[in-house]
Specification:
Blueprint (H helix, E strand, L loop, with lengths): L3 E2 L2 H21 L5 E7 L3 H17 L2 E7 L5 H13 L5 E4 L9 H5 L13 H8 L9 H12 L8 E5 L6 H9 L6 E5 L6 H6 L3 E4 L17 E4 L3 E4 L7 E4 L12 E2 L6 H22 L1
Helix pairs in contact: 1-9, 2-9, 6-7, 6-9
The structure holds NADPH dihydro-nicotinamide-adenine-dinucleotide phosphate.
Length: about 290
């Protein structure tokens, strides 16, 4: 058996098509959604992510402002940029690209973003709403992209056993909350680095979401036949056979495809969905600003 492809690109195209209507409607009402992206330093992968966010904005007719600051920027001046963007009425969404340089307090700085403009969904107010079971606000993009992909594939989560590998603030923990939320209704177990026998826990699962940052960690014999597997991981691994000397690997061994019913590819799975959800949050922020 070879798993069906949980095709994030195809699902993201559908999300984009729906967004185009909303953006047209906003433009008719005199508002163009506007996303500000702030990046500090010259981490090449982060610049690739930022460029693809900006290119998606262009494609959809979302205005974008790209603020690139040198790696020795001090925290006070980044704080000033964020506060100015909070004040700017024509900016609807603010994203500070992670990771920030080591001398900066990343959580403290992103907490400065006004919750209404927090299109990454990491502000305590937005995460707090999610903990309360309110899933109609700014949701973190990667976990909400995972949920949208599962819905797109027609995966019924009700009463199913889901295992989330990873408990980070930006992926694992919000993914677990969304899977367990009313309406999704899965029964969720969170696996982390202190879990005993993660393989045995995964083997019980109907749905596995892997977000650990360890290339190919989830093996075929961890997966129950017919399970749905979502691979969030994006890991660079050395590969001398490639011209550039490396390739991208997920957290899930590709051999899982022989056991699972659905498997998301890397690249082309959760990555495009994360960007699509960022666009959706930006459009939602613009709609809400207009209605306030
Ligand atoms: P973090 O490093 O913040 O979190 C990793 C989590 O995995 C932690 O909770 C950690 O446990 C857990 N973990 C690490 N090793 C093991 C192990 N051996 N067994 C069980 N659990 C383990 O990573 P992120 O959540 O930020 O990202 C996870 C992956 O997702 C990365 O590959 C990242 O690149 C990718 N990613 C992809 C995105 C996309 O758009 N597709 C967006 C964001 C991230 P503990 O808490 O105990 O340390």
């Amino acid at each position: 058996m070879s798993a069906q492809r949980l095709d994030g690109k195809a699902c993201a195209s559908q999300v984009e098509a729906e967004l185009l209507d909303r953006i047209t409607h906003l433009t008719e009402r005199g508002t163009q959604p506007h996303l500000a992206v702030v990046i500090v330093g010259d981490d090449p992968a982060s610049h690739v992510y930022v460029n693809s966010k900006i290119n998606t904005c262009k494609r959809l007719g979302i205005r974008s402002t790209h603020i690139a600051l040198p790696s020795d920027t001090d925290e006070a001046s980044l704080r000033q940029h964020i506060l100015a963007l909070n004040e700017a009425d024509d900016v609807h969404g603010i994203l500070v690209q992670s990771p920030l340089p080591a001398h900066m307090d990343e959580e403290g700085l992103t907490d400065l973003i006004h919750p209404d403009k927090d299109v990454d969904g990491f502000h305590p107010q937005n995460l707090g709403r999610l903990v309360q079971g309110r899933t109609d606000g700014m949701l973190p993009c990667t976990p909400s992209g995972v949920m949208r992909m599962l819905r797109w594939a027609g995966v019924d989560l009700k009463g199913k056993r889901a295992v989330v590998l990873g408990r980070s603030r930006i992926v694992g923990m919000p993914a677990a909350l969304l899977l367990a939320a009313k309406g999704a209704d899965a029964t969720v177990t969170v696996v982390h680095s202190r879990t005993h026998d993660a393989a045995a826990v995964c083997r019980e699962a109907d749905v596995v979401v892997a977000a650990v940052g360890r290339p190919d960690m989830v093996k075929a014999d961890w997966i129950k036949p017919g399970a749905v597997v979502v691979d969030v991981g994006i890991n660079r691994v050395d590969d001398a056979t490639r011209e550039r000397g490396w390739r991208l690997a997920g957290d899930v061994d590709p051999a899982v495809s022989e056991v699972a019913e659905w498997l998301s590819p890397v690249p082309g799975g959760v990555g495009p969905m994360t960007i699509a959800m960022l666009m959706e949050n930006t459009v939602r922020a613009a709609e809400q600003a207009l209605d306030r």
